[in-house]
């Protein structure tokens, strides 16, 4: 009787401790937050562009300076599975006419592995020249 209790307690203790010591077994997704920034898109923002052009490229900023509406902040926070979160801040400053005067990226953005990664194009390689006997039209 005492053996069953001792054996049960041992199995319970080992099973509980096994869950807490094994790391990275549970799948964790990548979590992007804020404005999704790509290096190629950020590189297109140049001095002399208008407010509409910047907003077309990057979208609505996460933060517009409340005291000076001429400074926009694009914040991109990327947390990959079990890594520490990485934050990138892209600042765009405009003059009174709404023209870009200065841009600043706090740290380089990761490059996209493939240009067609986000824009998948499905192409048909060739038409099937064989026709079935029942398709006469």
TrEMBL record:
Signal peptide bounds: 1-20
GO molecular function: protein-macromolecule adaptor activity
GO terms of biological process kind: Gram-negative-bacterium-type cell outer membrane assembly; protein insertion into membrane
Keyword vocabulary terms for this entry: Cell outer membrane, Lipoprotein, Membrane, Palmitate, Signal
Matches recorded under HAMAP family: OM_assembly_BamE
Function summary: Part of the outer membrane protein assembly complex, which is involved in assembly and insertion of beta-barrel proteins into the outer membrane.
Subunit architecture: Part of the Bam complex.
PANTHER family named among the record's database cross-references: OUTER MEMBRANE PROTEIN ASSEMBLY FACTOR BAME
UniProt protein name: Outer membrane protein assembly factor BamE
Underlying gene: bamE
């Amino acid at each position: 009787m005492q053996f069953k209790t001792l054996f049960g307690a041992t199995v319970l203790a080992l099973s509980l401790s096994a869950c807490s010591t094994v790391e990275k077994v549970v799948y964790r997704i990548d979590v992007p937050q804020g404005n999704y920034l790509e290096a190629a898109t950020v590189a297109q923002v140049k001095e002399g562009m208008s407010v509409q052009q910047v907003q077309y490229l990057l979208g609505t900023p996460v933060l517009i300076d409340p005291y000076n509406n001429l400074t926009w902040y694009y914040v991109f926070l990327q947390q990959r599975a079990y890594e520490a979160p990485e934050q990138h801040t892209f600042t765009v400053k405009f003059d009174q006419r709404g023209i870009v005067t200065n841009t600043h990226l706090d740290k380089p953005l990761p490059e996209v592995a493939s240009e067609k990664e986000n824009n998948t194009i499905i192409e048909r390689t060739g038409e099937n020249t064989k026709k079935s006997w029942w398709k006469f039209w």
